[in-house]
Amino acid sequence: MENKISFADILASTLHDTKNSLGILFNNLEDIIASCREQNCERYTEFYMLQYEIKRLNNSLIRLLSLYKAEKSQLVANMDYHAIGEFLEDVAVAHEILLDSRGIKLFTECEDGLFRAFDRNLVEGVLDNIINNAFRYAQSTVKIKASTDNGYLVIQIEDDGGGYPSTMLINENKHPEFKHEIDFKTGSTGLGLYFSMMVAAMHVNQNKKGFISIVNGGSMGGGVFSIYLP
């Protein structure tokens, strides 16, 4: 009997190769940017926009591959304990140069001595997506905050932009079925939101399951994204 390879497997393999190529391109561009900064190149900040788009595309491919693995039951949460304050600082360092290119300041705030177990790579992927959105919509400030609430670790990202559209708002007291239509004007597919919900739900502890909240307002009047991990 002839063995057939499914289209999904072929697509996943192609996405993986494309992701690796984008990673190489991203790193090479980072070297070019560093060289331009040393030489005071007047247009080096324009490279940040190119780097941002490459990273955004790469993150989309990572989310697609994660969803593919989840469908194949090959994606599991790799739980390990982390110092939350250090984790937030690492996330901030990875984005501060890009945000600074638009004059956006990034701050972190964390409860003292906070340690929790979670899948660092998956959660970092969620935060990357939210911060990349903040790069587009924030006016001047982005804050990453970690705290505890009713036994959950809550990691929150808020900005001083115009807030999320009403179709994306999710109250933490309600868990609606994911129904987000593709917006051809903005190019939004809702993939990042779906990925965030999936990652949160993969974190389970003592009958508590993780979830997300998306609201407007907060301390800066813009969008507020929160991921709750038990």
What this model shows, in words?
With 230 residues, the chain is of the alpha+beta class. The protein folds into two domains: 66 residues; 150 residues, 2-Layer Sandwich (Heat Shock Protein 90), CATH 3.30.565. Strands 2-4-5-9-8 form a five-stranded mixed β-sheet. The radius of gyration is 19 Å and the shape is globular. The chain starts with 6 loop residues before the first helix and ends with a strand. About 7% of the residues have low confidence.
Kindly summarize this structure in a few lines.
By secondary structure, the chain is α+β, with helices and mostly antiparallel strands. It has helices at 7-38, 44-71, 84-100, 120-137, 191-202; strands at 80-83, 105-110, 115-118, 141-149, 152-159, 204-205, 208-209, 211-217, 222-229. The strands form 3 sheets. Strands 2-4-5-9-8 form a 5-stranded mixed sheet. A two-stranded antiparallel sheet has the order 1-3.
What shape does the CA trace take? globular
Query: Any low-confidence stretches, pLDDT <50, length ≥5?
Result: 173-187
Cα gyration radius (Å): 19 Å
Largest sheet: 5 strands, mixed
CATH architecture of the largest domain: 2-Layer Sandwich
DSSP summary, beta strand count: 9
CATH topology of the largest domain: Heat Shock Protein 90
Strand content: 15-25%
Briefly, what CATH class of the largest domain?
Alpha Beta
* Order of strands in the sheet with most strands: 2-4-5-9-8
Our count of domains comes out at: 2
What is the residue-averaged pLDDT?
A: 82
Alpha-beta classification: alpha+beta
SSE ordering: HHEHEEHEEHEEEE
| Relevant CATH superfamily of the largest domain | Histidine kinase-like ATPase, C-terminal domain
